[in-house]
Amino acid sequence: MFNSHSLHNIDIFTIGVQECSIFKIKDWMKHLKVFISYYGFCEVTSIEMCQMFIIVFVKNDLRVFVENVESSYKPMGFANVIGNKGGIVISFKLLGYQLTFVNCHLAPKPYKVLERNKNVFTLVKSIRIGEKFADFDVLADYVFWQGDLNYRVDYNFHETVAEINKKNITHLLAKDQLIKLKQQNKVFYNFQEPEIKFYPTYRRIKGTDEYSNKKNQSPSWCDRILVKTNRNLEIHYYDALESIRHR
What we know:
Blueprint: E1 12-17, H1 25-37, E2 41-49, E3 52-59, E4 66-75, E5 86-94, E6 97-105, H2 113-126, E7 142-148, H3 157-165, H4 169-173, H5 177-183, E8 223-229
Parallel strand pairs: 6-7
Antiparallel strand pairs: 1-3, 2-3, 4-5, 5-6, 7-8
């Protein structure tokens, strides 16, 4: 995944993690900084909250053009105090463009759709970075929103696996909660998501095409990346690694 060829044409690099052991976050971030710096990147800033963190790097020769670096967080776990759920944000200007990066972990369980929607709106309204947020508008030239959004496929486990075995991604995407809600302008409106051409990542058994059954919950695309901008944007790659397991 990381090599000099894959990073050659990249100016900004960000990593967002959820459900990381709170005892290992410091080590993870330390090793990432050392590793990425080997390829000519330097850290803009990072922020952590309980089991999640986000870190942003830019190429060394661009660091002088970075300004107004800010970060913020909003816990939304138990009693809105525990940070195992919620979101963290980094924002800065690069060459005059305002860039905002969000990493989140929203409410779990297939039926908690409205709670996930509420998490998103609460996160946007609660975090103050740069200019004040207005309703659901994040005021930046580019907003990159990543994380475990936890939206599910509206099928049970066996129905979903049957469609996967038939390689029927299109049919499953029609049952994806997030896609349906975006089409109805109920959440993440004006955000783009690249076309999904990979199979669900949630509950995939590491290194295989098989899925483990947890309380009949369907395999789903819980981990997502969305982008909001009024400027030109060309997306080259959007995929998942089979060697990575989403619990």
